[in-house]
Design brief:
Blueprint: H1 13-26, H2 29-35, H3 41-56, H4 62-69, H5 73-80, H6 84-91, H7 94-101, H8 107-122
Length: 125
Amino acid sequence: MVKEEEIINICPEEKVQKLFLKAIELVGGLKQLCEYRSLTWLPALARAAFAVVLKEEYHKTDEEIAKELGITKQTVRNILQADPEYAKERISKLKDFMEEEGKNLKGHTAGSIIKLAYSMLEKNE
């Protein structure tokens, strides 16, 4: 009989959800996104959250991640190579950030937000 502690969590969903919610918190919360009409950012943040978790926690290749998420390898690379410091800088000027990004959040921007959120979760911030 397999003990509960021996079962390996093979579904990244729980970690992705925590990461996604942390990213939303970083950009001011859902209300802030609604006010700036930036709800279209949510899919980009979700894809970036999956990409980062699949790479960091499950050691998937860029190609495997692209196939699983239905995005290009270049988009995966943009997400994974994004600099979290970019997100910190942009979030500090949130109003300008939201107005400049508009309705479409770029892959590298989503990646930088998610990577910042990931590092904060890893440090329990």
